[in-house]
Every structure is written in C-alpha cells, then in structure tokens.
Task: inverse folding
C-alpha cells in the first residue's frame, strides 16, 4: 500500500471522514466548562450511544435520525440538572439531519428538522427553564438542514451540467456520424451517376462496333472512338469525384483540383454523347431559361443523365425525347422513351437490363435537396417517362455573367438541345 492510499480512500469516502470527525467534537461538547473528569460516566455512555448509529447513517437515514435524536434529547435532559443545557451541543442530531436533507426531499427534511427542534427545545425548557439560550435547539436543526439542502442543490447542478455535457457530446458525435453518412451518400450518388452513364454509353457503342465491324468498318471505328472518349470522360469525372476524399490536401486545393460540378449549361454536350452512342434522341427547350441554385443546377443535369442512361440500358433502339419547360418559378424536365425496338444480345442482356434502383433513389434525393419533386413510371404505350420539377432562383436584378446559374449561360446551353 502506498503512502497516499489512505488519502485516496478518504477522498472516495467523504461520509466516513465526516462520521469519524464527529466523535471528537461530540466528546468536547459533552464536557461542561472544561471539567474533563465529568466526561467519564453518563456523558461518555450517551456520546457512544449517539455516535455508533452514525456509522450506518447513509443506509438508514430516518432510523438513525430517530435513534440519535432520542439519545441527544436524553443527554439534554440529564445535563440540564448539572449545568446549562446549552453546554450540550447535539452534534449527532446535526449530522443525522444533514444526511436526511441530502437523501430526501426538501419537504421531508424540513418536517424532520421542525419535529426535532420542537422536541429538543421543549426538553431543554423543561430541564433548565431559566436558560436564555434554549432557542439554540431550534437553530441547530435549521443550520443542518440549510447546509444539507445547499450541498444537495449544488450536487444536482453539477450532475445536471454533466448530463448536459454528455448529451452535447453524444449529439456532437451523432451529428458527426450523420455528416459522414451524408457525405458517403453524396459521393455514392456521384459515383453512380458518373459510372452508370459512361458505362451504359460504352456498352451501347461496343455493341454497335461489334455489329458494324465487318459490314461498315468506318462506322465501327467511329463507335470505338466514342468508347475511348467516354472512357476518358468517365475516368476524369471519377477522379474529380474522388477528390473530395483526399484528406492529405486542404479544401481549397481540392476545390482547385476538381472540375466544376456539371449543370444545365452542359446538357448539350451530354445529349451529343448519347447521340454519338446511337440513341435516337430529340430535345426541345421552351420558355426563357432562369437561374438555378447550385443543388438544383446539378440535380437537373444528373436527372437528365440518369433518365437517358436508363433509356439506353433498358430500351435500346427506342426513340427518346427530352423536354425542358421554363417558367418564372420552376423548370420542368421530361424524358420519355418509347418501348424498346430491339432486343439486346443474349450475352449482354443480363448486364444491360439489370437495375438496382439506386438511380431512381438518387433522383428523389437530389430533387428533395433542391426543393423540387420527381416522378417516374411506365406510359400507356409501354414506354417510360421521368418528370422532374425544380425551383428557379427568384431574382429582381439581372444575374452576372460567367456563373453556371446565370441567364446567359442557360440560353447558350439550351440552344444546343435541338437535334443536329
């Protein structure tokens, strides 16, 4: 055992220290006017009888209080015949009432204190009626209860503060986990949109190249060139998307390393890529283009990309039409395709037509984040239609040029939607 072991034990058991310190105080208070010889006799017996129950006061506070109050009251009554009753301080009673005020409600603590004070004051008056200090027997219970309630309230405040700190820490961790999950979902959506689109286009061009390799080498070569272009584009977009995960660089450096997020101003390039892959695609834009927020701008592009990708995967050879309708409050994107006119080759059917549902889920989450709505389903003729409605930015001043959401860039972008 080390030297500071007793000190550590006392710090962990303050009640034991308090109980131990009470005994010498009780002995001193039981000696009238310094006459120590009077201690040996009934005062010592009463001190021992009052102190012993205090060793278990934390287990049975009310029972211990009843015992020690009785013993102290007897001590006051007996001492009143030999010397002023105020010479006997009910130390055991004070500690017992202090314990009750810590363990019970304020109502119980004050009730016990009032009963105790009344009993001991009455006994003191009957035993020594001419003493002017008998009112102290009302003060001792009052002091013990007040101190106990103050200590208890302080403990409650400390416990409440600790609980709030723990709750704040849990909330902080929960929010951190939520942000990590949201970032993972966002990256997963980007990866899905990028890879699904380019792989679907590459798959379609590979089928065309295989079919035309012997009959039309020039057309097959053009399809192979498209495969190379789309493969490079997929790698570039994948590299840009994964840039958000590069922890070894600062946020500003990552922003510089990544290409700007695609938006409505790149729809023309997107449509041309699908046309080069052999899709029978027509497009139309109606109304005056309006500026979009960042989430809505990206959502418009990604929804168009996903809808066209699904069309080329699940309805190869069918005619596809994309329609943009602008108004002062929203832009409505509609992509519909006719039923598939050709059947994919048997060896590629499972790969091309297999769907996971991630694309539709991503559409809904993107539109919800941008404050819009989306619907998708089969048409009466067996085709498929995707409709998304996204809010536009309500501005009263003319937008500045050079930003993805300005009116000029929208006009330039949508002018390229018509078929070549």
Result:
């Amino acid at each position: 055992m080390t030297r500071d072991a007793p000190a550590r034990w006392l710090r962990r058991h303050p009640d034991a220290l308090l109980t131990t310190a009470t005994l010498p105080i009780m002995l001193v208070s039981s000696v009238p006017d310094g006459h120590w010889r009077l201690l040996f006799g009934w005062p010592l017996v009463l001190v021992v009888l009052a102190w012993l129950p205090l060793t278990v006061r934390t287990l049975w506070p009310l029972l211990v209080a009843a015992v020690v109050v009785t013993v102290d009251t007897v001590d006051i009554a007996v001492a009143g015949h030999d010397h002023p009753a105020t010479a006997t301080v009910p130390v055991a009673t004070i500690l017992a009432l202090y314990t009750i005020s810590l363990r019970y409600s304020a109502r119980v603590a004050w009730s016990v204190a009032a009963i105790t004070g009344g009993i001991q004051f009455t006994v003191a008056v009957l035993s020594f009626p001419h003493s002017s200090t008998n009112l102290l027997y009302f003060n001792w219970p009052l002091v013990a209860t007040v101190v106990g309630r103050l200590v208890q309230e302080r403990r409650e405040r400390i416990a409440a503060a600790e609980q709030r700190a723990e709750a704040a820490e849990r909330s902080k961790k929960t929010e951190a986990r939520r942000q990590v999950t949201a970032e993972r979902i966002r990256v997963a959506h980007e990866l899905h949109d990028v890879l699904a689109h380019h792989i679907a286009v590459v798959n379609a061009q590979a089928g065309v190249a295989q079919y035309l390799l012997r009959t039309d080498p020039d057309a097959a070569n053009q399809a192979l060139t498209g495969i190379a272009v789309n493969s490079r584009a997929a790698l570039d977009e994948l590299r840009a998307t994964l840039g958000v995960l590069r922890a070894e660089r600062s946020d500003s450096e990552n922003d510089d390393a990544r290409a700007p997020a695609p938006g409505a101003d790149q729809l023309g390039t997107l449509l041309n890529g699908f046309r080069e892959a052999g899709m029978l695609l027509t497009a139309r834009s109606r109304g005056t283009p309006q500026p979009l927020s960042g989430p809505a701008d990206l959502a418009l592009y990604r929804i168009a990309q996903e809808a066209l990708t699904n069309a080329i995967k699940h309805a190869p050879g069918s005619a596809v039409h994309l329609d943009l309708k602008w108004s002062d409050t929203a832009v409505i994107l509609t992509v519909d395709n006719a039923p598939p006119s050709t059947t994919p080759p048997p060896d590629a059917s499972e790969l091309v037509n297999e769907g996971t549902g991630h694309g539709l889920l991503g559409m809904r989450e993107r539109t919800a984040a941008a404050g819009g709505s989306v619907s998708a389903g089969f048409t009466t003729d067996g085709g498929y239609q995707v409709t998304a409605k996204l809010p536009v930015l309500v501005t009263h001043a003319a937008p500045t040029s050079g930003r993805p959401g300005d009116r000029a860039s929208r006009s330039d972008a949508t002018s390229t939607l018509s078929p070549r």
Q: What stands out?
A: The radius of gyration is 43 Å. Residues 247-257, 344-355, 396-416 have pLDDT under 50 and may be disordered.
